[in-house]
Specification:
It is built from eleven helices and eleven strands. By secondary structure, the protein is α/β, with parallel strands linked by helices. It folds into two domains: 189 residues, Isopropylmalate Dehydrogenase (3-Layer(aba) Sandwich), CATH 3.40.718; 122 residues, Isopropylmalate Dehydrogenase (3-Layer(aba) Sandwich), CATH 3.40.718.10. An eleven-stranded mixed sheet has the order 3-2-1-4-11-10-5-6-9-7-8. α2 links the parallel β2 and β3. The longest helix has 23 residues. The protein is globular. The model has no long low-confidence stretch (mean pLDDT 94).
Length: 327
């Protein structure tokens, strides 16, 4: 089967994204990579790293370039809001390339939310943007070799989270995670652990009512329909090794409930996946690291893992489509 074709979007040009892309392009990932972004920014990164870069083909040190120029070449570590539209434009170009079938998936570097907002573009995260552009319900899931953690809510102030935990929303999220584990990861009968919202999962109503009123009734109904779901579980013990044994994914109720554990268990190898899209999207699990930009000291491990994960998912989906079902 032909090599998967991936779009690679560097992200914020004042951060480490361009340098990470140049580092990653020194390897053959078993995929043909098209970089969608600003060529001048990438060439500057190659000069900093003293690494070869040819934007005219494929193979180590080479990639095809789809030019989305930045109006301003920013100083290292200082994002320029003038580049907000081009940063988002590169993401949109990658989505369009996936939609036209020109590439099989997309890998994205870190963006700077404040710079995008300062550039006049309302932005709370790429996951939501991709869902909006494709008209799909999507779920953010982060993963490493230890655990997969999906999120019921993402970038919300903590005081808004309880109102966002609804039976309808949780059912939709669990369904997306369940289908992705089957279709993308080849797990026929996945086990999903669902965390409670409150300390001790509400402790029988003493510490909150969301578990008894929303989460538990939904899980019971979905279990009766055949899903293998555990919970609601107290978040402070759900990640113990013996509790993760046999678990295919954990659903956390909010961002900082699940992600600190995942990042502690293997930050360098962690990736950010968007579930529910027609094609795979995998991102790095870190920010723009403005303090490291231009130093050549950024660690490409997360981007390398993201490319490997996206290539594997893209190949799996193409095999699935060609065989009329999962292999």
């Amino acid at each position: 089967m032909a090599r998967p074709r991936l779009a690679l979007v560097p992200g914020e040009p004042a951060g480490v994204g361009p340098e990470l892309c140049v580092m990653a392009l020194q390897r053959d990932h078993g995929a043909d990579i098209t970089v969608i972004g600003d060529g001048a920014t990438l060439r500057r990164a190659a000069q900093v790293l003293d690494l070869p870069l040819a934007l005219d083909g494929s193979g180590p040190g080479r990639a095809r370039l789809v030019e989305v120029p930045h109006p301003a070449m920013p100083e290292f570590g200082t994002p320029d809001p003038a580049n907000a539209a081009s940063v988002i434009g590169a993401l949109r170009a990658a989505v369009d390339a996936c939609g036209r079938g020109e590439v099989d998936g997309m890998v994205t570097g870190p963006v700077h939310k404040a710079a995008i907002e300062a550039g006049g573009i309302a932005y709370t995260g790429t996951t939501g943007l991709l869902g909006q552009w494709t008209g799909r319900d999507v779920v953010m899931m982060l993963a490493n070799d230890v655990v997969r953690v999906a999120l019921a809510t993402v970038h919300l102030p903590l005081r808004e989270v309880p109102d966002a935990i609804t039976a309808q929303g949780l059912e939709r999220t669990i369904g997306i995670v369940h289908r992705a584990l089957q279709a993308d990861f080849g797990i026929d009968d996945p086990v999903i652990s669902v965390l409670g919202l409150n300390p001790h999962a509400g402790e029988d109503g003493l510490l909150g009512s969301e578990e008894a009123e929303v989460i538990t009734p939904l899980l019971e109904r979905l279990r009766a329909g055949g899903m293998r779901l555990t919970g609601p579980l107290p978040a402070d013990t759900a990640f113990l090794p013996h509790r993760l044994r046999g678990v295919d994914a954990v659903l956390a109720m909010y961002h900082d409930q699940g992600l600190p554990v995942l990042k502690f268990s293997g930050f360098e190898q962690a990736v950010n996946m968007t579930l529910g899209l027609p094609w795979p999207r995998v991102a790095v699990d870190h920010g723009t690291a403005l303090d490291l930009a231009g130093t050549g000291r950024a660690d490409p491990s997360s981007l390398l893992a993201a490319i490997a994960s996206c290539a594997q998912l893209a190949s799996s989906r193409r095999t699935d489509e060609s065989s009329g079902g999962r292999p």
